[in-house]
Amino acid sequence: GIVLVAINPYEQLPIYEQDVIYAYSGQNMGDMDPHIFAVAEEAYKQMARDEKNQSIIVSGESGAGKTVSAKYAMRFFATVGGSASETNIEAKVLASSPIMEAIGNAKTTRNDNSSRFGKYIQIGFDKRYHIIGANMRTYLLEKSRVVFQAEDERNYHIFYQLCASASLPEFKDLGLSKYFCI
Predict the structure, then answer these.
(1) Do residues 44 and 35 lie in contact, with contact meaning Cβ atoms separated by under 8 Å?
(2) What gap in Å lies between CA 47 and CA 6, rounded to an integer?
(3) Are the C-beta atoms of residues 100 and 67 closer than 8 Å to each other?
């Protein structure tokens, strides 16, 4: 298959804007510079041509930009699939509840808010190849952080948030007081 190696520049670049999406839309792989939009366009074209499911695997180290790359691919699909302004599918699919982020994110030496979740995102298209819905499944990758963390790293954010809120009246209702030194 096609492999794209990308790095996280840790800043917004103009290479992910709407005009760039349109530049890659309809192009053949290799006709333009390597880009997440080229990979997304190839998957989109093959889905339409072969009428078969396609997969894009985004993999990398902590802080590499996997979640951002997935957002850009979904923005591409929403734009070329005619859904970008109608449903804002990117925001709906990737909107994580603050509770889930607190439970699944931790401070690493590379990133203060690193997701420790794996994500599987399914995007559904209709017969005209417009996005009609999406489903995101998450699974916790680093259960070891519950009992251990490396030097200069923090455990999952939820533990620090619970400690900070242990003196609040609502905390008693959680039934966790016996686990915290308050």
Answers:
(1) no
(2) 24
(3) no
Specify binding-site residues for ATP: 60-67
DSSP string for 85-107? HHH-HHHHHH---HHHHHHHEE-
Which residue in the block uniquely carries the two structure tokens 């699944």?
A: 104
Looking at residue 176, its amino acid is L
Determine contact, residues 93/138, Cβ cutoff 8 Å. Answer: no
Give, as one character, the DSSP assignment of residue 17. Answer: S
For the stretch 123-156, pLDDT in tens is 888 898 888 888 878 777 777 766 777 888 888 8
SS3 content of the chain, % helix, strand, coil (to 5): 45, 15, 45
The binding site consists of 60-67
Q: What is the pTM of this model?
A: 0.73
How far does CA 48 lie from the centroid of its chain? 24
Q: At a CB cut-off of 8 Å and minimum separation 6, what does 173 contact?
A: none
- Domains, the chain, in order of start with CATH, read 18-145 (3.40.850.10)
